[in-house]
Amino acid sequence: MRRSSSTDRFQPVTSVKSGDGIEITPDVYGFTNQIVNVYMIGNPAKSKDWVLVDTGMPLRADAILAEADERFGEGHRLRAILLTHAHFDHIGGLVDILEKYPVPVYAHPDELPYITGEKDYPAADPTVQGGALAKMSIEFPVEGIDVSQHANPLPADGSIPGLPGWKWYHTPGHSDGHVSYFREQDRFLIVGDAFLTVKQDSLLAVTFQKKKICGPPVYLTTDWTAAKNSVQKLTALQPSIAAPGHGKPVIGSELAEGLTKLAARFDEVAKPDHGRYIKGK
To answer: Is the pLDDT of residue 78 over 90?
Structure first.
């Protein structure tokens, strides 16, 4: 394996562990891995089986697995890893986790080349309109990795193996094969980076986790027309709770109003005025 250089009535559980984790619902747990969120799907009151969505930053796999130990207990069983996409901050722990838990990894077919050693991502754009983190993005790795023996395409029918009730939706723009995961029963949306609840290019906003529904990270988004269409697709799902790749979960009217505004005014509030991947406002 090659490494890379609801409604307002809905109230999620808000118990926090170590300042980094939050039980959003009894079977969805979010854990902040430095600057990015990973999600554990599984109810520890009912089973030790669980599924991981994304694998966080490089060199942080042990932190994720330690959190799983605490949540699910000794002898827990990781059954699969779902990727929203394969940027470095979402697959940083993948190789190390697979060494301990050689489970299937599922991604969109268009994203598979980045985890089978076939492709690297386009370079990040430090010239894009944005804050300090955008300027620093030239240092972010874009090399693919190779976990071919574990990599599988998500089923074409939108289902997710081992997670009945959940479906995946192709939400490209930030990457070619970006997907989001949705459970209609409680209208729970795991967003990935299709939209965020923090302005990820701003060092100040990231440091203090100032909540605001925003577009995808500007420095690694290469197709802004597709990104806009993806936000509109997710808005049409009318999610009751959204768990983003960056930022805090958001629910109810705050989510509905913020997401509706983002979809309606995407070019004005999300798309940068200039940058390598900007083709027109």
So the answer is: yes
Each residue of 7-45: pLDDT tens digit? 233 334 333 343 479 999 999 999 998 889 999 999 999
Paired residues of 50 in beta bridges: 78
Instruction: Say what percent of the chain tops pLDDT 90.
Output: 79
Residue 129 tokens read as 């309109």
User: In this predicted structure, what is the pLDDT of residue 241?
Assistant: 97
The answer to whether residues 218 and 129 touch, using CB atoms and an 8 Å cutoff, is yes
The values of phi and psi at residue 12, to 5°, are: -70, 155
Alpha helix stretches (DSSP H) within 13-91:
61-72, 88-91
- The model's pTM is 0.91
- CA 146, distance to chain mean position in Å, is 20
- Which residues are bridge partners to 204 per DSSP? none
* Pairing status of strand 49-53 against strand 36-41: antiparallel
Task: Tell me how far CA of residue 82 lies from CA of 75, 165, 217, in angstroms.
Answer: 21, 15, 20
CA 25 to chain centre: 17
Instruction: Spell out the long-range contacts of 260-267 with Cβ–Cβ below 8 A and sequence spacing 24 or more.
Output: 260/235, 261/213, 262/195, 262/213, 262/214, 262/215, 262/231, 262/235, 263/228, 263/231, 263/232, 263/235, 266/215, 266/227, 266/228, 266/231, 266/232, 267/228
Predicted confidence (pLDDT) per residue in 129-160, tens digit: 887 777 888 888 999 999 999 999 999 999 99
Check: CB of residue 23 under 8 Å from CB of residue 13.
yes
Q: Tell me the C-alpha distance between 213 and 247, whole Å.
A: 9
* Residue pointed to by tokens 């386009």: 122
Radius of gyration of the chain (CA): 17
Q: What are the φ/ψ torsions at residue 167 (nearest 5 degrees)?
A: -135, 155
